[in-house]
Amino acid sequence: VFIAQSRASGSHRDVEDEELTRIFVMIPKSYTEEDLREKFKMYGDIEYCSIIKNKTTGESKGLGYVRYLKPSQAARAIEECDRSFRAILAEPKNKSSESFEHDYYVSNTRQEPRGNTLPFCMQPEFCSFEKNDSRIQEPVSKRLSVVSRLPFIQEQLFALFDLVPGLEYCDIQRDPYTNSGYAVIQYSTAASAIYAKYKLHGFEYPPGNRLTVIFLEDGSDSSE
Fold first, then answer.
1. Is the pLDDT of residue 17 over 60?
2. Is the pTM of this model over 0.85?
3. At what angle do helices 190-200 and 154-161 cross, to 10 degrees?
4. Tens digit of pLDDT for each residue in 53-63?
5. Structural fold of domain 17-89
6. What is the b/e burial string over 69-78, where b = at least 16 CB atoms within 10 angstroms of the residue's CB?
7. pLDDT tens for residues 61-79?
8. CATH of 143-215 among 3.30.70.330, 3.30.499.10, 3.10.290.10, 1.10.10.10
9. Which one, 127, 173, 195, 205, has the greatest CB density within 10 A?
10. Beta bridge partners of residue 204, listed in sequence order
11. Cβ-contact 64, 52 below 8 angstroms
């Protein structure tokens, strides 16, 4: 997807281009914009860095944006940076940044620390979804069903869903009578599964093949 869409990434700077060049990262609250730039400049030419701050106190929320000049540079940063940064592509500026930051924070703080994960403190403003959030009106779980009209390749599907932290397993089911794809995905937390469904349901993978992602009952209390 990066390669296909980067053909227009020369002087043409529009919303689609922004979707592929701006990344969202989790950082220590002590980081300055210069610290952020220093950590990510090795992956390409940075247009700007910004740190998200509390509007009342002016303190860092431990989240930031890095925008590169080319989609390939942003892709490299996501692939190669330390896992503790939880780097993902950012939503375009014309979309709701607050809800995006909220979803990201929930999916990244309600799980067991892994590797050399940096310590972050939970903030009350990120602790729960609004009760009237339309994205979670259906029963939710930590397990997802993924359906496609094309067969899946285990390694590729795992890599796609592993972009959301907390992936526990990816199990591809093969039907000898059809050429369609079916897989079961499970995350360590329901928050990660909610975020994966929100981001990947309807995603074209490969281009032209739209994925259907739904929740599977896993026996847990969905109200949690």
1. yes
2. no
3. 110
4. 988 899 999 99
5. Alpha-Beta Plaits (3.30.70)
6. ebbbbbbbbb
7. 999 999 999 988 988 999 8
8. 3.30.70.330
9. 195
10. 210
11. yes
